[in-house]
Amino acid sequence: MRTKKIVLQEVKSHTHKGRVQKLFGTHIPPKKVPTPKKYLTLRFKLTGLIPSKKNDYYAENNYRQIMGIAFTKPNPKMWLKDNVRSWVRGSKKYLEWLDAIQEELQPQIKFWRDKYNLVYPLNYVSIKTYYYFADSTARDLISKDESIYDMLVTKGVIIDDNYSVLYKTSSHGGCYKGEINDHIVTIDITLAIF
Questions:
Q1: What secondary structure does DSSP assign to 112-126, as a single string?
Q2: Domain topology for 14-53+93-193
Q3: Which ranges constitute the DSSP H helices of the chain?
Q4: Fewest Cβ atoms nearer than 10 Å: which of 1, 93, 129, 136?
Q5: Per-residue pLDDT tens over the stretch 18-27
């Protein structure tokens, strides 16, 4: 099955930073740096552990539901071949987390909308996250970031998480065991206003 090709939004005003360089045999053009009129940073806070959306996918199929029917058919093996379906199911923990954070996130979305008269979803942002971990377990920041970016799209805070909308990201984290009781993440969304 072919997926629909996503067309990027119009190119925002920018300047070129640097010069053309040759790196291991490839010519690299100068970086495009946005030139907005101003920037506006919104800070959000979530508590609790962010589930990894990508690490909790699992495969399912309908074999158990249809195997009894198969043996009533003249050619059960062929019937199963034609009727067994498989699919990938999303992370249950992630979906439960999306519901659980609604009460904490919604007032923050409203606060920034009212303060700056914002219209969501935002369409040209950079995001910086900082994770305050309440235990000493080593954690993957990239998968946590992906969960947050997808959540911001799902909740209507940003339009998408492709590079024409979310043009710059960074994340940091630290162990705060003994200093805090629950995990915390701060999410700084900087909106470029052209």
A1: HHHHHT--SSB-SEE
A2: 60s Ribosomal Protein L30; Chain: A; (3.30.1330)
A3: 63-70, 76-83, 92-100, 102-116, 141-154
A4: 1
A5: 899 999 999 9
